[in-house]
Design brief:
- By secondary structure, the chain is an alpha/beta fold.
- It has 3 domains: 66 residues, Winged helix-like DNA-binding domain superfamily/Winged helix DNA-binding domain (Arc Repressor Mutant, subunit A, Orthogonal Bundle), CATH 1.10.10.10; 112 residues, 3-Layer(aba) Sandwich (D-Maltodextrin-Binding Protein, domain 2); 102 residues, D-Maltodextrin-Binding Protein, domain 2 (3-Layer(aba) Sandwich).
- It has 9 helices and 11 strands.
- Helix 1 crosses helix 3.
- The radius of gyration is 23 Å and the shape is elongated.
Amino acid sequence: MRHTQLRSFHAVAQRLSFTAAARELGVSQPTITTQVKSLESEFGVELFVRRGRRIELTETGSGLLDIMRRLFDDEKEAADFLNETRGLRTGHLRVGAVGPYHVTDMLAAFNARHPGLYVSVTVANSRDTLRDLLDYRTDVAVLAHVDPDPRLVAIPYRRHRVVAFCHVDHPFAKKRSLRARELEGQRLIVREPGSTTRLAFEQAMAKAGVRPKVVMEIGSRESIREAVAKGIGLGVVSEAEFIPDPRIHVLPVTDAEIYTYAHVVYLRERQNARLVRAFLAVLSGLLAAGPAAGRRSRSPTPGR
């Protein structure tokens, strides 16, 4: 078993594509195919199966991929460790986030402190962002909610009020704010199940005994804003994510505590990793300079 075989398998398994793996490693597709087949032949196992034009991992392939993720992450850690002597002038920080709004100020501060480091950001839903962190695809994650997990450390960062918004021709557009009971029976456009904004709003409405009428479910903030701008119904959004628009009118709900939170999350086992430590140092500076979310957040904080 050679390192090149394992690297070829890892690249294919990560992307479920021999073509994409070859492009990533800078070799031909036949070379990648040969390396994987040699690995399978050497141990008498099947790592992939074909489903039409798609390939899928076998149970053996999935188990090997878990090991390879740890192996190549350790390899990256070794390179990072050897680069310590040169200071933080080179490296690649991988960040996962559920939205661009909470993470942008962190990235700006990190870039100002370490301009020589390369940063990539993957924006996805909460489930995929957490999975990428657990699978070593990212170094840190910015999540709205974190269930207690001994593998994770979560640092509360910020909280933001959830507000409603309507079309400028809606009767509510004449108001500066709303009370929860005024939302009874109102047509509502919401995010997909699992959205932390939707969950926070629904919990607040249930506590107030209010039942808005959900008429549409859309999986993006931008699309919800457009639906509200066309007069389909009301929307709800984190105040930090609200983008002023002449077609819509924002409405805080004055008698309900509705908030979304931002937590910076990392793997406990990687807390001493070079780039994770650097990011956390920048985060500490931001928390010291502004309101500490940890003093206000009621969200669970594993590992703290």
